[in-house]
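We emphasize that the prediction below concerns an isolated chain of 213 residues; any contacts that depend on oligomerization or on bound cofactors are therefore not represented. The input was used exactly as deposited, without trimming of termini.
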Amino acid sequence: MSIENSQDASTLSPRATQAVRRSLTPRQEAASRDVDRLIRAGRELITQGAPARVADIVTAAGLSNDAFYRYFRSKSDFVDAVVEEGSQRLLNYLRHKMSAAQTPDEALRAGIAAVLNQAVNPEIGAATRNVVAAGGGRSHAPKVREDLEFALADVLAGPIRELGSTDPERDSLATSILLLASMEHLLWRDISTFDADAEVEHIVGYVRRGLAT
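Result of the prediction step, given as a token string:
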């Protein structure tokens, strides 16, 4: 039987696979650098509320329109990527704050405070408003928002489980949805009209009472 007709003809050997990977690695690294530059430039423009046309983004990134559309299907696709990257930054911030807590109750409070801080901190709140506005809210990118809801729920599940939840998966998801909705609600309120610490304590108490029932 000839090699061409062999059932395994399309299967690359380990050395051949390594050769392919070596040829792709430089291109993958270059693509990663380009995308990182675009995301950073877009995030800077969007969080500052500056114009964020494709021309503005590629100029700030030092790249071309061709490079932009090589990686992103559209401006909307790019904004989704910026919002998603911001979500990852938020989750990393939550993990950092919650890891310093000594008890599950402190961890839950730290997580809730970290999310609401995106709205009640004047500087962060202004940047968050610009990102939310650029992203068009949940109706614009429901999958991006849904992914954040589940990822946030995963971060909150530990302390919620330790606080006695009999259904930590559903309870943490409900808490996640409540938190993100509360954060977006507070984003558009005048911060002089409410007590940020009281808002945190109210939601902590609400969740704790729910877990106790």
